[in-house]
Every structure is written in C-alpha cells, then in structure tokens.
C-alpha cells in the first residue's frame, strides 16, 4: 500500500471540467493521518483508489466508502476523506471509471457525461464497491461498521448500493438523481429499488436544483413510504445542485454544514460498534 502526504492543493488537482476553483475551497490537513493512493483488486483488474485513516489506532475502524462525483477522485473527494479520517473513520474513494477512461481528459461537463460517465455500467460499479469493502476489511477497517456516502453521480450510486449490499449499515446520498431513463448501463434508478433497501438512507437535496426537480424528490418520498423503507430526505430550500462542493460557485455553506452534521449523526445512529 503506497502512502503519499498531501500538500496545499493547486487548481490542477481538481477536475478540469470545473475550473477555475473558487476561493471557498476547503483544504483539510493530513496531520495525524495516513493518506495516499492504493490499488484494489476487483473483477480481475487493479482499481486505483485514495484513502485516509487516523494514525496510531489499533482497533479496526468504521469504514466509509466515498463515491465520487462525475469528476472522479479529485482534490475535493480526497478532502472529504481527510475530514472523515480526522473523525476516526477509514475513508476510501475508488476510481470507478478507471476501465472506461479518465475524467481529467475532459474540460467540458457535457462531453464528460456523454463520452465517459454514460458508459459506466451500474452493475460494474456495485461489484467494484463490494471489492472496496473487502479491501477495507483487510486494511484496518471493521466491516461490521460499513457506511457509504456519495455526491452527485455518487449520490445516486449510494442509493443503489444500499439496495445491493446487505452488509451496509447506513448510506448518505448527496443530491443524487432519483429517476431517469432505463438503459443498458443504468437499468434501475433509486426510485426503482426502494423495496430492496437493506440499509437506512439519508438523502440530502437542494430545493433549487434544476437537474433534480422537487417533483422527482416527492416521487421518491412516495416510493419510500409505499415500501415502508427506513429512509429520510432533507431538502435545503436555498441550495442548488452540488451545494457541498466548496470549490465551485454552487457551494452553499449553511446547507453543506448542516448536511455534514446530519450525515455524521446518521452514521452514528446506525453504528452498532460505537462506544
């Protein structure tokens, strides 16, 4: 396992499709942490990933799989991992597009979505996440305390993973799409799997999100009620899409901070190993 120390991030450590980076960007120190790149064996290949965990902790750690935005595992996702590691988690963010291409090769969001993101099959992603969990269990992680969170594209995947892996204890989905067209790569969406949720899910959404209209959020709420699923959706009226992305103009500090506290409380509520 290769470990690398991080430094103050430059703009080129973020995805080209969202440049330039705003002045609100947050950088969390890696002091007291083990952080770095690694590879995870999955489906006959080695998947790149980035992890962060506390130093000098003997007991197995609760695990949070951090699922990337459409922009891959860039500096913002790494910083989310560092924030979680400072709170005592092993956080790991896998590069889930690695077979299909690299997000850093795209400088336009439309091209990134069309030529890369749309080609990544959900089934492949969910199987890869299972291998991430297995890796974590062999690298200081406690799989009895397994959680997932994801942002944008990763928010949608977090809903799906909560219906896929019965070992998962809880999930938090940040502004992940809930409904959509059914395709070969995306045969189901969160609204289609509510009856199969085996882990409680907290969904965090923006009331001004043009890409995820409030009627789709209400459709999801109705589906969750019909399935008697253990889930909650919080809508922040003043926030748009990507309100936790502190490196973008979409960042809405009050909503992001409240969402972060709700996420931590959600994990704690379903962490049976916490003392």
Automatic annotation (TrEMBL):
Residues 48-270 form the Dienelactone hydrolase domain. GO terms for molecular function: hydrolase activity. SUPFAM superfamilies: alpha/beta-Hydrolases. This is Carboxymethylenebutenolidase. The lineage of its organism: Bacteria, Pseudomonadati, Pseudomonadota, Gammaproteobacteria, Enterobacterales.
């Amino acid at each position: 396992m290769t470990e690398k120390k991080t430094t103050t991030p430059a703009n080129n450590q973020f995805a080209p499709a969202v440049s330039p980076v705003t002045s609100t960007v947050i950088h969390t120190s890696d002091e007291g942490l083990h952080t770095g790149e690694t590879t995870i064996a999955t489906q006959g290949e080695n998947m790149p990933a980035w992890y962060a965990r506390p130093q000098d902790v003997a007991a197995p750690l609760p695990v949070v799989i951090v699922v990337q935005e459409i922009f891959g595992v860039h500096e913002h996702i790494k910083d989310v991992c560092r924030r979680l590691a400072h709170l005592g988690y092993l956080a790991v963010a896998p590069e889930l597009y690695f077979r299909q291409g690299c997000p850093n090769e795209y400088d336009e969001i439309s091209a990134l979505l069309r030529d890369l993101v749309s080609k990544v099959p959900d089934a492949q992603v969910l199987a890869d996440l299972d291998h991430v969990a297995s890796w974590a269990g062999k690298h200081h992680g406690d799989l009895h305390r397994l959680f997932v969170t994801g942002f944008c594209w990763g928010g949608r995947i977090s809903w799906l993973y909560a219906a896929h892996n019965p070992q998962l204890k809880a999930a938090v989905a940040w502004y992940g799409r809930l409904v959509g067209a059914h395709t070969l790569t995306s045969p189901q969406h969160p609204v289609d799997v509510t009856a199969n949720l085996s882990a409680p899910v907290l969904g965090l959404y923006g009331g001004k999100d043009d890409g995820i209209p409030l009627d789709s959020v209400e459709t999801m709420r109705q589906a969750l009620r019909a399935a008697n699923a253990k889930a909650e959706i919080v809508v922040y009226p003043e926030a748009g899409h990507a309100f936790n992305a502190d490196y973008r103009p979409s960042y809405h500090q009050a909503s992001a901070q409240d969402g972060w506290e709700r996420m931590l409380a959600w994990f704690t509520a379903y962490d049976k190993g916490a003392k």
